[in-house]
Amino acid sequence: MKLAQPIRFLATGLANTAVGLGIIYAAMWAGLGDLKANVLGYAVGITVSFTLNRTWTFQHRGYAGSAALRFLLSVAIAYAANVVTLFAVRDGLGLSSWLAQALAVPPYTVILYLLSAHFVFPKGRPDDTLASQSVDTRMS
């Protein structure tokens, strides 16, 4: 595994977090409620994350649509691990919510990275191969 790829993944995570949080705060300042601002910020943040990870981190050349569906599924799985960790650490270990939130970030990050590298944007995936072939080649 190249070290550059995980570093790019983390940089992308910082960028999409900054953009998403900026959108949330701007939307709240503009008068949107917490939930609407949060949904808008996360929608933009996930879009930024997908775009940067696809083009920069993993340099994926396959179909964007199928990769986007795999990415959304991967985000949901990583988020579920985040929530399970949060409650396990907070309620099971009795740690503060602040510390539990921080400790729930690494499982989310590691799981999303592994799913992105091996499921969402892997090299040699059939849709990567098909995207690089011409229509005439596929028809023969």
Summarize the structure.
With 140 residues, the chain is an all-alpha fold.
Gyration radius, rounded: 18 Å
Tell me the number of structural domains: 2
In total, the number of strands is 0
Low-confidence parts: 131-140
Largest sheet: none
Shape: globular
Span from first to last CA?
36 Å
What is the N-to-C order of secondary-structure elements (H for helix, E for strand)? HHHHHH
Please characterize this protein's 3D structure:
The chain is mostly helical and 140 residues long. The chain has two domains: 1-59; 62-125, no CATH class. It has helices at 4-29, 34-57, 64-92, 97-120, 126-132, 135-139. Helix 1 runs antiparallel to helix 2 (34-57) and helix 3 runs antiparallel to helix 4. The longest helix has 29 residues, at 64-92. The chain is globular and about 45 Å long. It starts with a helix and ends with a helix. Residues 131-140 have low confidence and may be disordered.
Topology (elements, then pairings):
Blueprint: H1 4-29, H2 34-57, H3 64-92, H4 97-120, H5 126-132, H6 135-139
Helix pairs in contact: 1-2, 3-4
